[in-house]
C-alpha cells in the first residue's frame, strides 16, 4: 500500500511537471527535454558502462545536448539548417578521445556511447519538429497529445495484462519480457485508440477522426517496440530498472522507453500527413 501511494503521488507530480512544461513556453519545453535527455543518457551509460570511460560518457551527453539545442534553434529561431551539423563536433571529440585512452581492456564499451546518441539523443531532438511550425511558432499541444496516447497505451497494457494476461493470455515476448502478454498488448492498443479519439473530439488533436485513429495505432505499436527494446537492454545487463530517480516508477529511461520510438514515428506520420 505504501508503495502504491508513493507511486501514485510521484505519478501525479510527474504528470503535472510534464503538462506544465509543455504548455507553458518554448523555454520550459527545452529545459524539460534537455533534462530528460541527460538523465536517460546517464542511466543508459550507468547500465551499460558503469564507471568505465567516465569522461567520454560526459562528452557523449554533451553531444546529445548540443544536438537538441541546435535543432531547437533551427526550428524556433530559423538559424540555417546546416548549423545543426555542428553537433557532430562533440561526437568527433568522443571518437578522438578514444585514441588517447590508455586502458583499452574494455574498449568495446565505447560502442555504447554512439548507440546512446542514436537511441536517445536523436529521438529527443526530433521532438522540436512536433512543437514548432514552419514560422517558428511554439505549441506543445501536439507533443502532449502524443504523450497522452503513450501513457494511455501503457496504462491499458498494465491493467489488462495484470488482470487477465497473467492467467489467460499468451506471452508477447517471453524471452525478453516474461510479464508482457498479448492481452496486455490489445488492452493498450484499444486504450491508445480511445485516447486518440477522445483528443480528437476534445479539439486537442487537430486531425480527422480516421487520422486520429491512425496516429493512435502508430504510436501504440511503435511504443510497444520501444518498451521491448529497453527491456532487452535491461535483461542483457541483468537490471530490473534503469534507475530510481522517479519514486515508485524507476528511472527516466524506464518511463520514456516507449517515447523513444513512438515520438519519432508520430512525427514522421504527421509530416506524411502534411505532404499528402
Describe this structure in words.
Helix 1 packs across helix 2 and helix 3 packs parallel to helix 5. The chain has two domains: 108 residues, no CATH class; 139 residues, no CATH class. The protein has 276 residues and is an all-alpha fold. The protein contains eleven helices and two strands. The protein is globular and about 55 Å long.
Helix and strand sequence: HHHHHHHEEHHHH
In round numbers, the mean pLDDT is 87
Distinct helical segment count: 11
**Biggest sheet architecture:** 2 strands, antiparallel
Tally of distinct domains: 2
Task: Classify the oligomer.
Answer: single chain
Strand order of the largest sheet: 1-2
Shape: globular
Show unreliable segments.
Answer: none
Q: Percent range for helical residues?
A: over 70%
End-to-end separation: 51 Å
Structural class: mainly alpha
Mind telling me the C-alpha Rg? 19 Å
Could you tell me the number of beta strands? 2
Strand fraction band? Answer: under 5%
Characteristics of this structure?
276 residues, mainly alpha, two-stranded antiparallel sheet, globular
Quick rundown:
The chain is mostly helical and 276 residues long. It has helices at residues 2-24, 26-48, 54-77, 88-100, 111-126, 128-131, 141-168, 182-201, 209-236, 252-256, 259-275, and strands spanning 171-173, 177-181.
